Amino acid sequence: MEQSKWPTIIQGGMGVAISTWPLARVVSQAGHLGVVSGTGIDTVLVRRLQDGDPHGHVRRALKASPWPDLAQSVVQRFFRREGRASGQPYARVPKWSLDASRPRVSLGMLGGFVEVWLAKIGQPGLVGINLMTKIALPNLAVLYGAIQAGVDVVLMGAGIPREIPGVLDSLSQHAPTQMHLDVAGMPSRDFPWVKFDPQDFDSVASTTLKRPAFFPIIASHSLATMLSKKANGSIEGFVVEGPMAGGHNAPPRGPKQFDEAGQPIYGPRDEVDWEELAALGYPFWMAGGLGTPRGLKYALDHHAAGIQVGSLFAFCRESGLNPRLKDQVIQTVRAEHPQVYTDPIGSPTGFPFKVVQVAHTLSDPSLYAARERICDLGYLREAYRDAAGRIQFRCAAEPIATYVRKGGSVEDTVGRKCLCNGLMASAGFAQIQRLGEELGIVTSGDAMDAMRPLVSRGDGHYRAKEVLDYLIQDSL
Length: 476
Hints:
It is built from 17 helices and 16 strands. The protein has 476 residues and is an alpha/beta fold. Strands 1-10-9-8-7-4-3-2 form an 8-stranded parallel sheet. A two-stranded antiparallel sheet has the order 5-6. It is globular, with a radius of gyration of 21 Å. The model has no long low-confidence stretch (mean pLDDT 93).
């Protein structure tokens, strides 16, 4: 597709179930690129079923999947018509591993299918899916499910997704595929493979699948240059996220420096050369602090195809953010004192992570300290090789003694937050643990003031269509 034919606005693929299918569907129907989040989508799938699947959307999508027997088994195992009883924990599923079972892998595949299918069904607009490169174990299964549902674009950051173009080629042909798993302390030449074979799931090879476009999410023109030369398949565009973008940020380049609040300082080396990026010949979208009409104009004036916008959509009515948290943030913006802290150590990944200061969430140091450390989801675990040479997994946010026993250092556990449970809770899927319900953690870009024109009316709540109308009012 030519650059001029790509949508101007990409809706960010935010968090865990914040960029849900209803949000992506509205943006897509309006002629832009709606994006669903694929992070933790297998857990989201089974928790929706356990909460009673209001309106039956999940079961309707599962029934439409190419794997009716697998879908039926998932419904039989997890669906609770009346939802969970008060105080009842969600049923847990095993954490991902290199040798994950067929039923476990199928949850990722079905999760990817359901979310994209619901966003696309009955409407002709473009829908993308966003995944984190670092969360390698589920990605192949989730991508295959999304491709079966007709996903148009795959967007991936939080790492260097050099192998994903070839993965998309293989999966769209129902062929076995694999990608390397990064292992701490191991030479890259020895990294093990994460493997996925569509034929393990009785996929019909005669069906023709569309190979989706691939947009790596990057933070520098040098990475775009490298990927354009060394990726193992075609790239159709880039999303360029600056340090003001929400969620995980790329660490600053060069020596680490921090401001008085302990936030990482970004400098000239972190600035993107737009002329050099444009010279590569790919369409690209700017992201991070540009969610305004002026920001869109700036992007178009600097050769971009448009902008990716996250925070404005994260707090709209159609997003999956818990309504209580959404209202707290909106009222904070209306009162003109939103606070976003770029936490350099909060994420188990070691990447900076932006946290909105919201009452009764993990942004409160006392509530973070009171939480019992547990790793029962494990998406952000790090692979390492144990003394016997086996590949194992650890997380800097898990119990400290457990992490140290696995070869991790105590220093790496300081301040680490369980983003898996925190983000799941923010989307309304809080697990009930031994000491009570998990608390949420809210992320946003730095430029929350950009929301003010949208929240200044009525009760402050607004819809995704209003975001689009606001952004494009004077820019196109």
